[in-house]
Write a structure and sequence with these properties.
mainly alpha, 491 residues, 3-stranded antiparallel sheet, two-stranded antiparallel ribbon, single chain
Length: 491
Amino acid sequence: MRLDFLRPFIKFLPEIAPSSKPVHLKEKLMWTVAALVIFFIMYHVYPIGVNTLLLQGQGAEFLQVVTASKIGSLITSGIGPIILASIFLQLFMGAKIIELDTRDPDQRALFHGTQKLLAILLSFFEAAVYVGIGGIPVFGAVGSGTLPLFGSLVATTLFVILQLAMGSIILLYLDEIVSKYGIGSGISLFIAAGVSLSIVQGTLILLFSSDRGALGKLQTGSATAIPDAIIALLPLGFTALVFFVTVFVEGMKVEIPLSFERARGFMGRFPIKLLYVSNIPVILASALLLNLQVWARFFYEKSIVIGGTDYLPYLINVQNGQFGPRIADGLLYLITPIQLSPLTSSGGYPTYLYELINTPTPMLGIPEWVHAITYVISLTILCVIFGKFWIETTGMGPREVAEQLNKSGMQVPGFRRDPRVVEKVLEKYIPTITILGSIFVGLLASFADLTGALGTGTGILLTVGILHKMYEELSAQHMFDLYPDLRKFMG
């Protein structure tokens, strides 16, 4: 399917014009900081017409991390529409449903225009879904005890949806500004900013919280003051551990020697990182598991009766919790993220570990530690499945990479130039590294979630990768500013 029929709609979309001259480092920093300031302002501003007293944003930490969002604020959907639009188009192109040659400038412009149009449509759709399912309570809703704006519940609902959609659209254009005038991409910048804010806020709570803060425990002067303070800071310690492990693994790679056909004697290397598929597997796997909780709403107070016995609770037992219906028992409960957390436990780590060992589910009596182990294994297996699926559908497999290297005039030294030769070499590394990398991100993310690491394991993985790429771009930009002729040489 060709996308030319969308050109009349795309030409009406506003676009950030690229700079006509090189953007220097100071100017890039200025635009990047300005985008961050706007992001944090929208992060803390709630739409007019939203009943903030009834917000149920808790329990959606993963969703808020990967979409740089805050439930109830102007960026309730965050960069979710942008990410979904990109994933949809990439998958459709990988499956050959959409015919686009991104090497052609005109086709590439059509791709970006289609992605922007789809992201805008998804912004309105996601905003409507959030309000429609009651995730964003509006004034005048049944049971809210408030009157609607403009004297109409429909008008209030539409006004809130418009504000939520405009929040995501503003992020869409901020992403475009950062990509053309700032450092890195806006999507990456907002994710890293959201995770960093979560870590800072969590650290302040661990230090100064009145009931379980480390400083408060030290001021008691009891014999156990120091051990209690250390235990209170364990989430911060696990955060640092996950961060440093991720930084270390980020640099692990296999380099395949290559030579250039047109420049004999000039050698190059093709690096294949251990995190070859980055954090995509754990994002997709966690999103699937998160959706189980969303789907649980459809099973609330339902039953499957066979021979007088209701078998649905043995498969999925849904109970109405503090933040709406959620899976609380059954076989599917074993693969959902654990509800216990050392950060929310009133007694900290000792109480959390006691609950993990001794708390059974209400009907089947499944211990929480069994749930935790099963969750880790299932998340890791899903990461491997999604990792292999991602490289096959996005052109990252051995055959596609070999063809790309062949078109660039590169070959394996000592062999004739043939993509099949390069493919055989890549087949020794890419499938194995994909599995190992997927297992690593699955285990690390689940370990961070079990230990209560601040910012979630997925958030830390994303942030480390983003900061690493930003550092590389800053270094390159600094080099270009010092040696302007180098920029001309590199094109």
